[in-house]
Design goal:
single chain; alpha+beta; 7-stranded mixed beta sheet; tt1808, chain A
């Protein structure tokens, strides 16, 4: 394996500070050996991509969305909400660990003890400096090819929620207002909830969602 921890920007020859640790010349077996419950490691076309530890804001947004989505899905028995580093294996050469994914009851049939075999119905990624380009570029294209039906990219630095239906087909970029999930009728968020310094209470947001189930 060849490791390059600070990839070169092809256009300028400069080193890219906003990068992830990338190992080249790898195999699916290398990913099986390296994958861990404690860190995000993805495998894409012969490369192991190791994510930096999540920052505080990423963790806050992840926790808020995980609880909100789970509290909507679970009592209605709509399926299951899972989080990375649980793996989504789109093919032998493409194994991802989305921040959040929703699986319908039908998709749950493809679960094993350590991965989902095939696409999630709905995936959410919370971008950081090091993952923004990856989430909106290569990962997005892999999700399109792999059949992810809805994909939200949340960019707290840009204060944007980017919505694809299906992955690879952008339908909206929202800084405010309702962001609706078509795969989960009645589920939506207000984009501006995500930009508050102190995130709102999940219970209050869920109550608003349930009181106004349509846009």
């Amino acid at each position: 394996m060849v490791v390059r921890s600070r990839p070169i920007i092809e256009e300028t020859g400069a080193l890219d500070d906003a990068c992830m640790l990338t190992y080249y010349g790898c195999t699916p077996e290398d990913w099986e050996e390296a994958s861990s419950d404690n860190r995000f490691i993805e495998y894409v076309d012969g490369r192991l991509i190791v994510h930096s530890p999540a920052g505080l804001r990423h963790q806050q947004l992840f926790g808020f969305l995980y609880r909100l989505l789970g509290d909507f899905v679970e009592p209605r028995k709509l399926g299951e909400v899972l989080s990375g580093p649980f793996a989504m294996e789109l093919s032998l050469e493409r194994k991802f660990e989305p921040d959040l994914m929703f699986l319908s009851q039908r998709a749950r049939a493809n679960l094993t003890d350590d991965r989902l075999l095939g696409p999630a119905d709905f995936a959410i990624e919370v971008a950081s400096k090091s993952t923004r380009g990856y989430d909106r570029g290569e990962k997005r294209e892999c999700y399109r090819v792999g059949g992810v039906r809805e994909y939200w990219m949340i960019d707290p630095a840009a204060r944007l929620v980017i919505v694809d239906r299906p992955a690879g087909h952008e339908v909206a970029q929202l800084a405010s207002g309702k962001v609706e999930c078509q795969l989960l009728p009645g589920f939506w968020i207000r984009a501006e909830w995500l930009w508050q310094d102190s995130l709102p209470a999940v219970s209050e947001c869920l109550a608003e969602i349930l009181a106004h189930p349509t846009a």
